[in-house]
C-alpha cells in the first residue's frame, strides 16, 4: 500500500463520525421499543418483589390494552395532525362532548321505550358524528383563517367542553339502556375449559360458581380500537392523502407550489381527529354506562405524549402509526404498573412528564444528526 492509498487522519475521523451518527440514528428509531421493554421489565420485577404478583399474566396484559384504547384513539388523530406540523388541544374535550351527546341520545330514546339495540346504535352514531363539527372548525381556523393551531384548538376545546356541560347540566348522563355496559366491558371470546368457547357472551349453561373457571379474552373496546388503528394506518401509509400529510409537514410552501390542496387536506386532518375523538367518547360511554363532560380532560396531553414517545417530530413531516402504538402502550404500562404496585396515581404524571422530555431531547438530537 502506497502513501496515497492510506486514509488521511481527517478522512478517518469523518468516517468514524458518520458511523457514530448512523448508529445513534438507529438507536433513535428503536428507542421507544427499548423504553417500553424496560418499563415492562421494571414493573415485572417490582410487582414480584413488592406484591409477589405476576405483572404479565393474561388479565394484566388485557388491562394494559384497555388502558391503552382511549389514549391510542386520540393519539391516532394527533399523529396525523403532528405529522402535518400542527397540534390539537381539543381532542380530550371532544371526547367528553361525544360521550355526553351519545349518552343523552340513548337516555332520551330509552326513556321513550325505543328498542335498546337501535337506541345504542343511534347514540353511538350521534356521539361520533357530533365531533365532526369541532374538527371542521379547527381545520377551517388553521387552514383558512391562519390561526395558530395551539390557539385555535384550545379555543374550540373550551367551547366543546362548555357545550358538553350545558347539555349534561354538569352531571353524568346516566339511566342508559341495557346491553350498553356489556358492549363496553364485554369480551370477544369466553373460554370455558371442558365446555368450549363462546363469542361475546358467557356460555348459557354457566352458573355463578363457574365464572371463576371461565377466561375472557380480547375486550370489545380493544377489538374496536384495533380495527380503527388498521384503518388509520392504511390511510396514512397507503393513500395519496397520507402522502400529502407528510409533504405538508415537511414543507408548507413547497406543498402549495407542488399543487397539493393544502387547505383542504388540513381540514380533513382535523376532521379525522374529531371523528377518532368521537369514537373514543362513545366507547367511554359504553364502558361506564354514562356520559361526562370531563371524560377526556387528562387524555389530551397523554395522547400527545404517546405520539412524541413514538418518535414523531413536533416540527412535522415525521411519525408513524406503529410508533404511536408503542407510545400509547408505554403510557398504559406505566398507568397499570403503578396501580399494581399500589402507588398513588399522581406519580404517573411525573413519570410521563420525564419520558416526554426525554423523547423531545431525542428528537432534537436526531435532527442535529441529520
**Largest sheet at a glance?**
3 strands, antiparallel
User: What do the pLDDT scores average to?
Assistant: 89
Q: Give the end-to-end Cα distance, rounded to a whole number of Å.
A: 34 Å
Counted beta strands: 3
Order of neighbouring strands in the sheet with most strands: 2-1-3
Number of folding domains? 1
Oligomeric state of this protein:
single chain
Rg: 23 Å
CATH class: Mainly Alpha
How helix-rich are the residues, as a percent range? 55-70%
CATH domain fold name: ABC transporter involved in vitamin B12 uptake, BtuC
- How much of the sequence lies in strands comes to under 5%
Low-confidence stretches: none
Folded structure, characterized:
There is one protein chain. The protein is mainly alpha-helical. The chain has one domain: ABC transporter involved in vitamin B12 uptake, BtuC (Orthogonal Bundle). It has 14 helices and three strands. The chain has helices at 9-50, 58-83, 91-111, 116-129, 132-143, 149-168, 180-185, 220-238, 240-250, 252-257, 262-288, 299-309, 321-340, 347-369; strands at 187-192, 196-199, 215-219. Strands 2-1-3 form a three-stranded antiparallel beta sheet. The chain starts with 8 loop residues before the first helix and ends with a helix. The model has no long low-confidence stretch (mean pLDDT 89).
